[in-house]
Design brief:
Length: 306
């Protein structure tokens, strides 16, 4: 009887690949069943509680020398400053600074007219530029098997995270925002972002922050600090159809995931304005931002960014 082993069939390769993915998921501790059906098309995503939330804003430069030290770009848009419409704050001595926001104008910026939703945030899972996150996104992102996201999975330049809605609570306040960047500190934290056991962020910087929020969300939630690292929030994902009307729906961002330098209009954008939306005041514009390098898997480099 021959003891030689025949080559493994293609089915064996597929099984091996599935095992590798399973081991990866077990290593990060992600429960893929992190969205629970509630009936009538509504799903309940798990809450993440008592999470440190720092503040960032379009046009911020906390370290111009660092690889990812500028908010003129985001991980999903190399021309974020232009796409947004300029500095999301006030320009003082040529520097884009944050500002306090007021409920009187829906926490919109006071000195410019945004072209995208000023209620934006980031979470530490970059499914485009971080190789580890990109490799596991089909398995850990709860909506990955739904359309149109399922059709996007084979395109490495298309994010299934960008523009997703998040519900945030602090004290007795509830606000909503859209994911428009990745961070802080890490870009592959699937266990925290998608897990159902309220895991703590793996990022240890910025007081262990688990997200950055925009000045509009900072004001809407009544943060005690304009630009600090001590405010905490509870948050969860929410489907668009379950987002209530509010100042966060005056402009809904639906932009492409990356600026395309080969396009006749590389800074093209599409923003849906809901019926009855007010007009924010016109203000300062931004300079043309140069496309930046990919994000570092280790997170933000350089000194403390606030």
């Amino acid at each position: 009887m021959s003891t030689e082993r025949s080559p493994a069939p293609h089915g064996g390769i597929a099984v091996l690949s599935a095992v590798v993915v399973l081991i990866t998921l077990l290593a990060v501790g992600v429960l893929v069943t992190s969205a629970v059906d509630r009936g009538e098309g509504e799903r309940r995503y798990p809450w993440h509680t008592d999470i440190v939330a720092t503040t960032f804003w379009v046009g911020e430069e906390f370290d111009p020398t660092a690889e990812d030290g500028s908010q003129s770009i985001s991980t999903y848009d190399d021309a974020w400053l232009l796409s947004y419409g300029g500095c999301d704050g006030v320009i003082e001595d040529g520097v884009c600074r944050t500002e306090r926001r007021s409920a009187a104008n829906g926490w919109f910026p006071t000195s410019m007219n945004p072209l995208q939703n000023p209620f934006y945030l980031d979470l530490p899972f970059d499914d485009v530029n971080d190789p580890r996150a990109a490799a596991m996104r089909a398995e850990v992102v709860p909506w990955a098997d739904e359309e149109p996201y399922a059709s996007m999975l084979d395109d490495p330049d298309t994010s299934i995270m960008k523009d997703r809605w998040v519900e945030l609570r602090r004290g007795g306040r509830t606000c909503f925002g859209q994911v428009e960047d990745a961070g802080p500190g890490r870009y592959d934290d699937a266990r925290y972002v998608f897990g159902s056991r309220d895991a703590r962020p793996t990022n240890g910087r910025f007081n262990g922050a688990g997200m950055d929020v925009s000045p509009a969300i900072n004001g809407c939630l009544g943060f005690t600090e304009l630009n600090g690292e001590d405010d905490r929030v509870d948050w969860r994902f929410v489907d668009e159809q379950d987002v209530p009307e509010g100042p966060w729906t005056r402009l809904v961002t639906t932009t492409p995931p990356q600026a395309d330098s080969t396009s006749p209009d590389p800074y093209r954008r599409e923003v849906r304005v809901r019926p009855g939306a007010g007009r924010a005041r016109r203000g300062s514009g931004g300079r043309r931002a140069r496309p930046g390098p990919p994000r570092s898997p280790e997170g933000r480099d350089g000194p403390r960014r606030h």
